[in-house]
């Protein structure tokens, strides 16, 4: 039997210990990937040096996220490394070259059939071999602007009418006219590391046990990080 001589990538799951983070770590499919449990409140400079890839879990505690942001950005300076930043992580506050505008959320648009303007884009890009429509079309929490060299993968289309749509908290959730309105992008040029950023909070919904598309995205991102 032939065996590979390339060792598997060492993946760190950086989290702040919320119930959905811990549930994700206990998922047998995640356990089988030998993902390392990296508790962000204890993360120090150099604490990611032993890893080849990092999954930044959704909804890190804001105070902890601010403290470890330099550690995450420093990891991106490593040639050949990979990072996925899950949603609801305020990337506009700490990730160089990216800004974020918060948007509302229609949680069930994918079930009731509302077209909120979400579109797969640049579908000829090789990264789409790692994605699927189901994995990225459930919901989002913001729109991103990013370095011009990055490739948008999912975006909101410009609104077709002047009528806005708001969630139960009064936050509008359709595209902002004239904005990039990116929901997920891939960037292999801004940093030595490869980077994927999303405003979809996959590990939150996976660990909370609802939104099946979120589980699809989480598994696919872990698969990419481990390649």
From TrEMBL:
Protein name, entry field: ThuA-like domain-containing protein
């Amino acid at each position: 039997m032939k065996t590979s001589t390339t060792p598997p990538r060492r993946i760190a799951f950086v989290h702040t210990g919320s119930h959905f983070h811990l549930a994700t770590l206990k998922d047998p499919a995640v356990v089988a990937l030998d993902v390392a449990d990296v508790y962000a409140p204890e993360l120090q400079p150099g604490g990611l040096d032993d890893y080849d890839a990092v999954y930044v879990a959704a909804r890190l505690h804001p105070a902890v996220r601010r403290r470890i942001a330099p550690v995450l950005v420093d990891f991106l300076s490593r040639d050949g490394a990979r990072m996925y930043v899950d949603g609801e992580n305020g990337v506009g506050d700490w990730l160089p070259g990216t800004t974020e505008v918060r948007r509302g959320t229609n949680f069930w648009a994918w079930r009731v059939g509302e077209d909120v303007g979400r579109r797969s884009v640049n579908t000829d890009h090789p990264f789409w071999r790692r994605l699927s429509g189901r994995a990225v079309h459930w919901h989002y929490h913001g729109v991103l602007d990013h370095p011009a060299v990055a490739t948008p993968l999912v975006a909101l289309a410009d609104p077709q009418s002047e009528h806005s749509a708001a969630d139960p908290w009064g936050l509008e959730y359709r595209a902002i006219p004239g904005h990039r309105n990116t929901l997920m992008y891939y960037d292999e040029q801004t940093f030595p590391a490869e980077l994927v950023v999303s405003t979809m909070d996959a590990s939150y919904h996976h660990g909370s046990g609802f939104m099946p598309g979120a589980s699809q995205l989480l598994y696919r991102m872990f698969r990419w990080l481990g390649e």
